[in-house]
Amino acid sequence: MSRTLVLVRHGQSDWNLKNLFTGWRDPDLTDKGVEEAGAAGERLKAAGLHFDIAFTSNLSRAQRTLQLLLETQGQSGLETIRNEALNERDYGELSGLNKDDAREKWGEDQVHIWRRSYDVPPPGGESLKDTGARVWPYYIHTIQPKVLAGGTVIVAAHGNSLRALVMALEGLSPEEIVAAEIATGVPIVYRLNADSTVASKDVLEA
Ligand SMILES: O=C(O)[C@@H](CO)OP(=O)(O)O
After folding, report:
1. Which of 32, 88, 98 maximizes ligand 1 atoms within 8 Å of its Cβ, making it the mutation to test the pocket?
2. What pLDDT is recorded for position 1?
3. What range does the domain containing 149 cover?
4. CA–CA separation, 185 vs 26, rounded Å?
5. Does 206 have pLDDT greater than 90?
């Protein structure tokens, strides 16, 4: 029984590089992002992981990361399910704005609250709680059954959609999730117990 769940955030995107709020906007990977995706594939291969199914969002940066990673890891034809439930948090009116400009306009503290708090949404956008309210049911009903059936499952998604998932998987509090960051292109490997709790966690850093 493998019961393995791998989470990976997409590689660096063009808008990560330009320091813009991205959310549901759809920039492509940078060259560095492409490299990060390949490196993630190498590490998964070295760890001996062979996937049964993949899940990703409706956004190009996550889909392309998954595709590049699977090519490197040797599973380019893997069955892949895309769903917008795994999309990045909707940044609302902040989408497309420069993060430093936003800090100048609204102040460091306010921007940090919008970016990392649990339940304060950015103007017109989703809080992490709102994001979790679509990510978690999708995980429970669609992804988790594949893992608990003994599978090895990969999810390629986004900084905040994965923070919402990690928060629920690890039982983190709203205070604890503020400090949690998910690095681009670094796979997190969870082994689950039969009762769906986390048995172990390994972060495959370079
Ligand atoms: O802009 C975004 O969509 C996210 C992820 O890149 O940014 P942040 O880390 O500020 O939540």
Report:
1. 88
2. 83
3. 4-203
4. 17
5. no
